[in-house]
Amino acid sequence: MPMKGSGEADLTVVDRFDGGAGWIAYPDEAMQRASHVVESDGELWVFDPVDAAGVDDLLAEFDEDVGGVVVGLDRHSRDAAAVAGRHDVPVYLPAWMNDVAGDLDAPVERFDGELAGFAVEGIVNNTFWQEAVFFDGETLLVPEALGTVDFFRSPGETVGVHPMLRLLPPKSLRQYDPERLLVGHGSGVFEDVRWAIQDAVDGSRSGAPSLYLRSLKSMLPW
Length: 222
Known about the structure:
This protein is an alpha/beta fold. The protein is built from 4 helices and 14 strands. Helix 1 links the parallel strand 4 (43-47) and strand 5.
């Protein structure tokens, strides 16, 4: 199983809810890169998209037009420019995020604090990692710090903190009480969401050794 898929995609919808959806363009890849669309302020907002045939058909299922494409992590330029270009909208970046415009062949708009009904918080902001989370009172989108794919989760976890953040997890995530959690790697969480987030953050350090050991074993040739 490749870490990241390439070539012809096979779009699979993994999250559906009133006012939004999520898809994985390459369901057989280990990274399980997830993309999302959420209705807010009378428009559709597309988050960290990986493009695939069928994306525009999925967006067309909603009544609203696309208002913008949002990049929530400095490494997630992904296919934001391609999707934005087809819908003639800008790519939106947090004002404090590194300039990834060189990777984006599209108009770029900067924002700070909030965007189209979403409260925006920078949960990681350093030289190597800059990430924003988005919350509209119901849906919490976390591009990278949390994930549900196997290599994020230690045994017993529904949601896991990214392996590189395990020793210093973003504790501000504990404040959120969303109806649903959407993540950049894996399917979303729709039940006991607040508990799953708090369990992930609180158990991040204690679960790190087992997660690292499992990852190491998976890389060994025997």
